[in-house]
Amino acid sequence: MILLFDVDGVLVQNFAYSAALQNTVAYFARRLGLSEMTLTQDDIEVFESQSITVEWDSGAISVAALLIERLQAGVASPLVLNHSALPLDAEQAFWEALDRLAAGRVSARRPNFSAIARRVGEATPPGGLPSQAALTLFLEDLDGLALPGDVHQSAASLLHLLLADCYNIDHAPVMQIFQNYAIGHVEYEQYYGLSPRFTSEALLEKLDRPHLTLAMRDRVLFGRDAQETYPVIYTARPSLAPVEVGGQLRGYTPEAEIARRLVGLDSIPVAGFGKVDWLARQVGLIGADLVKPSPVQSMAAIGIARTGLEVESLKAALAVERGDHLRYPLTACAGETVHVFEDSVSSLRAVTRAVEKLNRQGLNLKLIRHGIAPPGSPKQASLEKIADALHDSVNDGLLGIL
Predict the structure, then answer these.
(1) Rounded to the nearest 10 degrees, what angle do helices 173-192 and 90-103 cross at?
(2) First to last CA, the chain
(3) Is 389:368 a contact under the CB 8 Å cutoff?
(4) 340 forms bridges with which residues in the sheet?
(5) Most buried of 93, 215, 277, 301, CB within 10 angstroms?
(6) What's the CA gap between 269 and 314, in Å, rounded?
């Protein structure tokens, strides 16, 4: 029996990421010359209910919404960029524009972040990136504003800088600020080799709390030691590169591993963003191409859970996605029942597609999809449409199978 565990909202109460997201949006509100404004917890849950589960996406979308509100406030002259410096010095031009905007504060309405989340969610195609869909929508909104040509051009450039490459720390301003808050300024400089924007403690170490109880953790580990269950942490959280690679590679932060330690599952493998990002770089892609909702990460997680082989599972998963023949370690999973514990509809769909692809290759897997959402959460309505079982917590779901 293979167990795929999402982290945030499933194994862990992710207070840190919510706080980092709220701090990030508030930071950019100040830098845009606006009053203090940010997302509420309800807004964050609506983003997640729309399968916008990566804060680099939801943060960039929210900051882009603030930019549109700033433009609608009617004070846009400080926005004009030095277009002769673009695109080579795009990041420098971005921060210089924010410096000018921060110097002249204006009054603007608070965006309806929940409505924006629903709009972007509806516009995002299956398997697509929400930030890319949002870029198209915000550029359309920009065209509807009566702005001078140079201001319009500069605003469009800022939207591209915010939304076009949200997963690249060297070119994603919202990711930079979010990571500065999430892992703290010391780790930010250590893992990215970049100067932090400000001094901050590591919110991940300070705020997160386990959902998984000690008793249920012990049952998971007992089943693993008896070779009755094969658990893996399956998450879009940043993580280290595959264990076989070794060493500390730039840009790979141990955020999934921090969660693993928090819930006491240090001995089980992690199939996090860092793993698929490493694979993507080997084949000329980017990590966002292979992380969930891509089925590649799901297939790799199944192989990693069953065998512990990370690099070979990643390569085998990509081979299946590209239409090649099934190979080990995935062949070792034949006939297994796969239980996935998720709070995201898009991730449940990703695992569903992954199992369908593997079964067309003859693996004969059985999939049980466990949707996790507390009572009253807006996620419940969307999860119950696809989940085979809906639970208030991961502990309730595990109780029925262990």
Answers:
(1) 120
(2) 10
(3) yes
(4) 4, 369
(5) 301
(6) 13
Residue whose entry in the numeric block shows the structure tokens 């989940």: 387
Instruction: Calculate Rg over the CA atoms of the chain.
Output: 21
Nearest Cα neighbor of 78 from 25, 151, 132 is 151
The residue among 16, 53, 83, 73 whose CA lies nearest residue 293 is: 53
| Tokens matching residue 238 | 């940043």
The pTM of this model reads 0.84
Q: Quote the tokens at residue 158.
A: 């800022």
pLDDT tens for the chain, 402 residues: list them.
999 999 999 999 989 999 999 999 999 999 998 988 999 999 999 998 898 988 999 999 999 999 999 888 865 555 665 544 444 467 777 888 888 887 777 888 999 999 999 999 999 998 788 999 999 999 999 999 888 888 888 889 899 999 999 988 999 999 999 999 999 999 999 999 999 999 999 999 999 999 999 999 999 999 999 999 999 999 999 999 999 998 789 999 999 999 999 999 999 999 999 999 999 999 999 888 898 888 999 999 999 999 999 999 999 999 999 999 999 999 999 999 999 999 988 899 999 999 999 999 999 999 999 999 998 888 888 899 999 999 999 999 999 999
The three state secondary structure string of the chain is CEEEECCECCCEECHHHHHHHHHHHHHHHHHCCCCCCCCCHHHHHHHHHCCCCCHHHHHHHHHHHHHHHHHHCCCCHHHCCCHHHCCCCHHHHHHHHHHHHHHCCCCCCCCCHHHHHHHHHHHCCCCCCHHHHHHHHHHHHHHCCCCCHHHHHHHHHHHHHHHCCCCCCCCCHHHHHHHHHHHHHHHHHHHHCCCCCCCCCCHHHHHCEECCCHHHHHHHHHHHHCCCCEEEEECCCCCCCCCCCCCCCCCCCCHHHHHHHHCCCCCCCEECHHHHHHHHHHCCCCHHHCCCCCHHHHHHHHHHHHHCCHHHHHHHHHHHHCCCCCCCCHHHHCCCEEEEEECCHHHHHHHHHHHHHHHHCCCCCEEEEEEECCCCCCHHHHHCCCCCEEECCHHHHHHCCC
**What are the tokens at 193?**
């080799």
Phi-psi region of 75 (alpha: psi -120 to 50; beta: other; left: phi over 0): beta
